[in-house]
Amino acid sequence: MKFHPLHDRVLVRRVESDEKTKGGLIIPDSAKEKPQEGVVVSVGKGARDEDGKRVAPDVKAGDRILFGKWSGTEVKIDGEDLLIMKESDILGVLEA
Q: What is the largest CA-CA distance in the chain?
């Protein structure tokens, strides 16, 4: 199934965090927090400004991003857990 977000929405795949701390302790699944880092899968065409002109999104598919802890709506597409969020919920883009 293909999915394309509308307007200024972004489809994001969470990036799983390490299962060990820097000190080598293994973190059990019950104690893990959901990661706040993800990869953009798909982006809408952008919102419209007051004049009706489309404002292009600042992120693109493949960008590695940070987002707020409670951002987005969890969805399941083709058996994969993904997030749909507004572009304004994205805190920043991580660069290598």
A: 55
